[in-house]
Amino acid sequence: MAHLTAHTHLAGPVDVDTYGEYRTSPETRFTGRITDDGAFTARPFRYHVYGGWFCPWTHRVAITRELAGLHDIVTMSYVDDERDARGWAFRELHGPDPVNGFTLLREAYEATEEGFDGHVAVPMLWDRFSSRVVSTDPTGIGVDLATRFRHLAASPVDTCPPALRDEIERLDRWIGPAVNRGVNSAGHDPAARSALLEAFELLDGRLAHTDFLVGGALTEADVRLWPTLIRFDAGPNAARTINPGLHVYPHLWRYTRRLYDLPAFRDTTRFESFTAPGATKPPWA
C-alpha cells in the first residue's frame, strides 16, 4: 500500500527493493471514444488526461490538446517520472493528483475495473462524470481531442481535417512501427536500426520542399512523429549508437527545430524527463 504524506496525498519514494521492478505486457485495454450521443460526449471540464512528461505518447496528446485550444476545457496532470512494481504514482516532482487525490495511478484503473490486473498506462483519459477510465489509446485520444471539442474551443488548429485523414493514417501505419516504436530497439537491433534510418532518409526527402508532412499544413501526422524526433539524440541515440545524430538529415533537422519554436510543442517538452544520464542536451534545449 502506498505511503501517504500528510495533507498532500503523495506516494512515498520509488522502492524497487520492497516492491520490485514494474513488469507487465503493454496493452490497450480501454478504448472508449468521444461521440455525439454515446457514453462519452464532449462537455467542458468533463475529462482529464493523466500523462507522463517522459512519455512520447503522452507528448502527442499534450501537443494536440494545446493546438485544439483545450487547455482550459480538458485538464491535464503528470505522474512522477519513475516507478516500481506499483506502477506510476504522484510525487512531489509534479505534484499530487488534482482530480481524485489518488497516490497511485493504479487506483484509477481499479475504480474502473474491479480486480484490475493490467498495464497502468499513460496517457490515460479520465471521465469525471462517471469516475472511470475512458481510454489509454493515444491515437484515439488525440483524434478525439482534435475533432470533438471544436465547438467549445477558441481558435483551434484543425490538425485532423477530413480531407487529410486517410493520408495521416496511411503515414502512421509506416512511421509508427519504423520510427515511433522502432527507435528504442534501433541501438541494439540491426533490423530496427536499418528500418529507422531508411525512414529518416525518406522523411528527409519528403520534407525537402515543405514544412509539414501532409497537405502543407500542421496535422496529427506531425504531432505523432515529432515527440520521437525531439527525444532521439537525448535518449535512444544519446551514445550515438544508431547514427551521428539527427542533424545528418538536414530537412528533418530543420523541421524538428522549426516545430520546437511553436509554443504547443516547446511548452509541452521537458527535456529533464527523457534525457539519458550524462547525455548532452541538443542545442535547442
Kindly describe this structure.
This protein has a 4-stranded mixed β-sheet with strand order 2-1-3-4, with helices on both faces. The protein is globular and about 50 Å long. Helix 5 runs parallel beside helix 7. The protein has 2 domains: 121 residues, Glutaredoxin (3-Layer(aba) Sandwich); 111 residues, Glutathione S-transferase Yfyf (Class Pi), Chain A, domain 2. The chain has 285 residues and is mainly α. It is built from 9 helices and 4 strands.
Could you give a short description of this structure?
It contains 9 helices and 4 strands; from the N terminus they run H-E-H-E-H-E-E-H-H-H-H-H-H. It is mainly alpha-helical. The protein has 2 domains: 121 residues, 3-Layer(aba) Sandwich (Glutaredoxin), CATH 3.40.30; 111 residues, Up-down Bundle (Glutathione S-transferase Yfyf (Class Pi), Chain A, domain 2).
Strand order of the largest sheet: 2-1-3-4
Assembly state of the chains shown:
single chain
Number of distinct helices: 9
pLDDT averaged over residues:
94
Uncertain stretches of 5 or more adjacent residues: 1-7
Distance between the termini: 38 Å
Class of the largest domain in CATH? Answer: Alpha Beta
Number of domains: 2
CATH topology of the largest domain: Glutaredoxin
Anisotropy-based shape: globular
**If you compute it from the alpha carbons, what radius of gyration comes out, rounded to the nearest whole angstrom?**
19 Å
Give a count of the beta strands, DSSP E runs of length 2 or more. Answer: 4
What summary fits the major beta sheet?
4 strands, mixed
Instruction: State the order of secondary-structure elements, H for helix, E for strand.
Output: HEHEHEEHHHHHH
Which architecture name of the largest domain does CATH use? Answer: 3-Layer(aba) Sandwich
Task: Give me the CATH superfamily of the largest domain.
Answer: Glutaredoxin
The helix/strand class is mainly alpha
Proportion of strand residues: 5-15%
Helix content: 25-40%
